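hiii so um. not sure if this is the right channel but i have a protein structure encoded as tokens and i wanna go backwards to a sequence. like what aa goes where. can anyone help
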């Protein structure tokens, strides 16, 4: 079969990225330009600033991706782009660029679900990985437990009822005076803390539920910090971070394990920004070893937002016959 090179664009949040990926799994180039340093000043992503920065960066990033791949647009077979979920203005920049490229080159256009992209990051890192498997998908905006039946057949079994997992990290970090994004800071700080120091709640919701809720845990952390401050007692940030993380992990791992058992599957993919957390990786690998499961984490650079994962998802969509026309529009609230 002829090789298929997908050029993909990702601009759903605070990373402007363009990648070229061969046959859904081989990264030829993956340029990621992060806006984090700018948004850090405001303590989170400012949507209008993000859109403007994407606009300034996008042409350059596409050029760089082609240059690094030593390719011209002629060598590209498909143009893929994140259509949602994400920030409306930010998504619009990527979609407009992709439409322009598709119009000029007459190459097919494929709109991609960003969350599907996160799952496909695992196909790039693990060339032998094929469905079916369970995916624990934990990002800054979403938290899903997914049964991946096939490359384009994914069923959401559980999701968050309130805050996403990464969002809880970011909010806890903020309340501790740590910069955005909070995940890496909380993980680092937790390394010298005691995870048993504070008994934060493990919110399981009703019996047998695969849904998540992290806002109660976040509030419990805030209440703990306030009550300590009121009593003028010293706070160990390390213990707060370690105990918070442990509460998150306990819930994630308990529900994931139960779903693996129920579906009788032995392959587990963990994806999305929070899957970059090494402490979580170790805990999941321990659970997997005890149960004879195989685990698949994307390489760290592919855990957080990047266009290579969008190219991979775009490839599998393309094989399935997905084609978009120029009426393709942003879908900020797109679900999996
Ligand atoms: O998937 P992602 O890059 O963007 C979204 O699609 O949302 O995820 C970003 C989220 C942020 O909330 C960030 O704090 C979290 O992933 N994150 C982490 C770590 N690295 C990034 N959370 C915990 N531990 C980390 N090491
Ligand atoms: Zn993402």
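sure thing!! here u go:
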């Amino acid at each position: 079969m002829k090789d298929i090179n997908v050029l993909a664009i990702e601009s759903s949040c605070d990373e402007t990225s363009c990648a070229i990926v061969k046959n859904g799994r081989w990264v030829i180039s993956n340029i990621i330009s992060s806006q984090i340093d700018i948004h850090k000043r405001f303590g989170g992503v400012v949507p209008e600033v993000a859109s403007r920065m994407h606009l300034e960066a996008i042409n350059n990033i596409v050029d760089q991706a082609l240059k690094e791949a030593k390719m011209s647009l002629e060598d590209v077979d498909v143009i893929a782009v994140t259509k949602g979920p994400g920030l409306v203005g930010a998504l619009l920049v990527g979609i407009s660029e992709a439409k322009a490229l598709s119009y000029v080159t007459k190459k097919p256009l494929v709109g991609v679900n960003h969350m599907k992209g996160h799952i496909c990051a695992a196909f790039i890192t693990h060339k032998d990985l094929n469905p079916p498997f369970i995916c624990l998908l934990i990002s800054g905006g979403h938290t899903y437990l997914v049964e991946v039946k096939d490359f384009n057949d994914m069923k959401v079994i559980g999701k968050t009822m309130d805050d996403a997992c990464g969002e809880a990290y970011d909010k806890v970090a903020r309340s501790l005076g740590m910069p955005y994004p909070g995940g890496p800071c909380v993980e680092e700080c937790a390394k010298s803390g005691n995870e048993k120091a504070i008994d934060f709640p493990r919110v399981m919701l009703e019996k047998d539920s695969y849904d998540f809720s992290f806002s109660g845990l976040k509030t419990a952390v805030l209440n703990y910090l306030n009550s300590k401050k009121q009593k003028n007692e010293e706070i160990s940030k390390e213990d707060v971070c370690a105990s918070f993380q442990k509460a998150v992990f306990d819930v994630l791992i308990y529900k994931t394990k139960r779903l693996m058992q129920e579906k009788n599957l032995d392959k587990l993919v963990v994806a999305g920004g929070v899957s970059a957390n090494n402490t979580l990786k170790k805990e999941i690998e321990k659970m997997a070893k005890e149960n004879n499961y195989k685990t698949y984490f994307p390489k760290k650079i592919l855990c957080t937002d990047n266009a290579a994962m969008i190219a991979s998802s775009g490839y599998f969509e393309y094989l399935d016959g997905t084609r978009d026309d120029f009426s393709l529009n942003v879908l900020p609230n797109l679900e999996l």
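oh and The beta strands are 5-10, 15-22, 26-34, 78-84, 109-113, 133-138, 143-150, 153-159, 267-271, 294-296.
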